[in-house]
Amino acid sequence: MKRIVSQAIIAATFLTSLAFGAQAIERKPGTSPWGPNDEIGRLNLITAASQADILSRVTGGPVYDLSVEYFMGMPSWQAAGDPHYRIWMTHTPHGTVIDDPMGVGTRMNEHVSYTGAAVSMYTHTGTHIDALVHFGLDGKIWNGFSAADHLGDRGWRVGGAENIPTLIARGVLIDVAGAKGLEMLPKGYRVTRPDLIHALKHQNTTLHQGDIVLIRTGRMKLYNDTQAYMANPPGLGLAAARFLVEENGAMVVGADNLSFESFPSELETDYVPVHTYLLAEQGTPIIELVFLEELSRDKVYEFAFIGGSLKLRGADAAPIRPIAIPLEKSQEITGFGSID
C-alpha cells in the first residue's frame, strides 16, 4: 500500500504540474515547415542521404541493446490510473492436452507441447517513443490538428504511432551523471543547459542537426526496484530541452527515466511542460526508459541509432527496441553554446 500511495503522489504531482504549466501562458502548437499534412515533425529530417551517411561510418564494433526488459511489477504509470504490464498464459502444454482447442487429439497435443501467451500494458511502458499526439495545447496537437476533428474511439486519425518511420540516424549519448563523476543524479535533479554543455565538453562530443540525443541520469541502475526507480526521478528542464532542439537541431530526444522531464514543473513566465514544448510546439518525439548503462561504461558517445517502433494505429506511443553501433569519431568539435 505504501508503494502505491508513493507512486500516486508522484504521478499526481507530475500531471498536476503539467496541467498548471500548460495554462500559465497562452501558447500554440507549432506549424510544420514540411507542409499542412505533416504528421511526424522533425522526423522529416531523416533522408536516404542521411541514413547512408551514418551507415557508412559504422565501425563494425559491438552492438548495444538500448531497450529494457518487460516484466510483472516493472516501472509504470499505474499510480496515474494507467494499466501496468501483465502477461498471462493462454495455452500451456498440459492445458492444451486437456482442452484440445484445435481438435487434434491427445497424442498430437502431448507431442507438440504447445505454449501461448498474451500481454496487456499502457503504451508508455518500457522503452517507448512518444508520438506527437501525446501532448498538445488547448485540444490541438502539432501542426494544428485538433482532437475535435481527428480523435476517434479507436485513436488519432492523424499523427498516430503508425506514422513513425524506422529511425536510422546519428545517436549521441550525453552522460550528465558521468560528467559529474556520479553513478546517478540526485533525486529530483533538474538537468540544465550548463549541465549539457559541460557533459559535451567533457566527452569531446558535438551535436549536429538531425541527431537522436539520449540523456543519461543514471536512474536505470534502479530499474529492477520499481519503487526506487519511480521515486522523484531526475529529468530535464525546459532550458536544456531548448538547447538540444532549438540551438543544436536535435531530431529526437530521450533519457533513461520514465518521465524525461523533471517534476514538479518549473513555473517560468514563458513556461510550458517540456513534453508540450517538444511534442506540440517543436514536433520532436521523445524516447523514454532507454538503457544507457553499457554505452556509459564503454564511453561510447557517438553511434548509429537504429530502431523501429510498433505500428500501433492511432496510438500516442509505441514500444521500440533500438540498438546502437559505434561510429568512427567525428573530427570537428564545434557548435557548443555558451554556458552563460
Give an account of the 3D structure.
The chain is of the alpha/beta class and 340 residues long. The chain has eleven helices and 15 strands. It has two domains: 27-72 and 123-326, 3-Layer(bba) Sandwich (Glucose Oxidase, domain 1); 86-119, no CATH class. 27% of the residues lie in helices and 17% in strands. The strands form four sheets. It has a nine-stranded mixed β-sheet with strand order 1-15-13-7-9-11-12-4-14. A two-stranded antiparallel ribbon has the order 2-3. It has a two-stranded antiparallel sheet with strand order 5-6. Strand 11, helix 10 (274-281) and strand 12 (286-288) form a beta-alpha-beta unit. The termini are far apart.
CATH topology descriptor of the largest domain = Glucose Oxidase, domain 1
Order of helices and strands: HHEEHHEEHEEEHEHEHEHEHEHEEE
CATH superfamily of the largest domain: Putative cyclase
How many domains make up the coordinates? 2
Tags for this model:
340 residues, alpha/beta, Glucose Oxidase, domain 1, two-stranded antiparallel ribbon, 27% helix, globular, disordered C terminus
What is the strand and helix layout of this fold?
Elements: H1 2-23, H2 48-56, E1 64-65, E2 86-91, H3 93-99, H4 106-112, E3 116-120, E4 128-130, H5 147-150, E5 151-152, E6 155-156, E7 167-175, H6 176-179, E8 190-191, H7 193-203, E9 212-216, H8 226-230, E10 235-236, H9 238-247, E11 252-255, H10 274-281, E12 286-288, H11 293-297, E13 302-307, E14 317-319, E15 323-326
Parallel strand pairs: 7-9, 8-10, 9-11, 11-12
Antiparallel strand pairs: 1-15, 2-3, 4-12, 4-14, 5-6, 7-13, 13-15
